[in-house]
Amino acid sequence: MGINKIAKHAKVKFEQCSSETVEDFVTRLLLEQFDYLYNDKETQGLIHWEISEKNDLLNSIARLRENKASQLFERIDKEIKSTEIDFRSVSALLVAGIYYLNLHHRVNDSTFCEIDINNPIDQQKLKQTISQIVHIALSTKRVS
Hints:
The protein is mostly helical. It has one domain. The chain has 6 helices and no strands. Helix 5 (87-108) runs antiparallel to helix 6 (120-139).
């Protein structure tokens, strides 16, 4: 579930991503998370359960996911020390958006902000926007 399951599914190991830029790696990870969550009803159910009910098992899974995310943020911190934008906040909003749009589609099968996640054109627009947000967040330089 989350970053662990996506990374495992994509056979990604953080230490093996040295040939990619951080921006490319993060973008790929988020886009794979989008696709995986869209296609995996079991994971959608787990996330829905996680945000709907207090549960020790799900809390431990969330802590593991956060530990894995911390490794990613450490790598990002080393490479983007001069950015003005808090990438943890950007990541939280992007992941929450990916979760919500996929759960909304699962439960309501309706549009959100006039976006139909089941429409390939709308999916592509969302993915392009994710890529653009990551690019802006990781390339905006701090003004001294």
